[in-house]
Specification:
With 174 residues, this protein is α/β, with parallel strands linked by helices. Helix content is 39%, strand content 19%. It has a 6-stranded mixed beta sheet, sandwiched between helices.
Amino acid sequence: MVVEAVLGDITRERVDAVVNAANSSLLGGGGVDGAIHAAAGPALLAECRALRKAVLPQGLPVGDAVATGAGELPATWVIHTVGPNRHTGQTDPGLLASCFRRSLDVAAQVGARSVAFPAVSAGVYGWDVAEVARIAVDAVRSHPAVGTDVDQVRFVLFSEPALQAFRAALAASA
């Protein structure tokens, strides 16, 4: 089993599934969400609209996850998860950990052996990247699918400070 952190662009990852730090509407947004939707093309938005219409009329709840195809991305799946927004009072670390756990549950369900995660809720949702890193690494390392159903988890970070925070969390949990 490999759990690693790299500097990069999650939309270019050649893994079975990329995790999207989505908003509850699933219809695109800024940051990672906007980049994934832009790179995946219109097929991703069409699938998300269909999910909203058929299964999630109220949107995806915070801490939950759902899979769609990946459109034009090199991955097979996009696993959408909604992180807690600290600016709106969503400060429960359990909700953030749930994003990573539920994403791995969904990855195992769709047969994804390799998964790339962004720093869910860091950035515009106001969580400190070091706290996100600790929570994410703990959630991933303790998940029963990691090492059985999922062979590789890669945290793909967009900035050097985020990369360093995730590398420190990985070293602390080794």
